[in-house]
Amino acid sequence: MDYSLKDKNIILGVCGGIAAYKSVELLRLLKKGQANVRVIMTRNALHFVGPLTFEALSGTAVCTSLFTANDPAAIRHIDWAAAADAVVVAPATANIIGKIAGGLADDALSTFLLAVTCPVILCPSMNTHMYENKAMQRNLQRLKADGLLVLAPESGQLACGTTGPGRLPEPEVILDRVVSCLSPQDLKGKNILVTAGPTREPVDPVRFMSNPSSGKMGYAVARAAQHRGARTTLIAGPVSLADPPHVNLIRVNTAREMASAVFDNMDRAHVIIKAAAVSDYRAKEIAAHKIKKENDEIVLSFQKNQDILKEVGRRKKHQILVGFAAETQALEANAVKKMTEKNLDMIVGNLVGSPDSGFHSDTNTVAFFFKDGSREALDPMEKDTIAHILLDRIVEKFLK
Ligand code: CTP
Question: At CA 343, angle to CA 373 and CA 365, rounded to 5?
Answer without folding.
Answer: 55
